[in-house]
Amino acid sequence: MNFEPIAYDPDEALKLENQICFPLYAAARKVIGAYTPLLKPLGITYTQYITFMILWENDGITVGEIGSRLHLDNGTLTPMLKKMEKEGFIERRRSLEDERKVDVFLTDSGREMKEKARNIPLEAGKCVNISPKDAKTLYNILYEIIDADKKK
Fold it and tell me: What integer pLDDT is reported at residue 6 of this predicted model?
């Protein structure tokens, strides 16, 4: 793969092998796919799992804060949160300080999910067979991509 061509060649640029987006996409699908059999017994999706992770760390944060941390818009987040509420994992309440904001709180069932999910990071991590050093490098590069718009 050559990311620094001498001259732009549209035919070369349109080859899948010359795209950085494709290996990112394929790797993300592989990693998320590794979580599916681990999350299925808990009855939750990957997006619900990462939402739980945020709430286990910061119970009672706003929907907007969750969306910001997960890089999800309200159109994606709200239906998922409604489902989590219906399943008894969370409660959504209007903020007492600002009624335009909705705070999200774990229920006892949502807090208990943490214990059930305790080994998921270790098990899912086995699907990525790279050294800890390479994993840290990859992590840093991915966050450079994710946070690129913040640096503008």
Answer: 58
CA angle 35, 37, 39 (to 5 degrees): 65
pTM comes to: 0.87
Q: Which one of 3.60.20.10, 1.10.10.10, 1.20.120.520, 3.65.10.10 gives the CATH number of domain 10-132?
A: 1.10.10.10
HEC per residue, the chain: CCCCCCCCCHHHHCCHHHCCHHHHHHHHHHHHHHHHHHHHHHCCCHHHHHHHHHHHHCCCEEHHHHHHHHCCCHHHHHHHHHHHHHCCCEEEEECCCCCCCEEEEECHHHHHHHHHCCCHHHHHHCCCCCCHHHHHHHHHHHHHHHCHHHHC
In tens, the pLDDT along 71-129 reads 999 899 999 999 999 999 999 999 888 989 999 999 999 999 999 999 999 999 888 88
Q: What is the pLDDT of residues 38-52, one digit of tens each?
A: 999 999 999 999 999
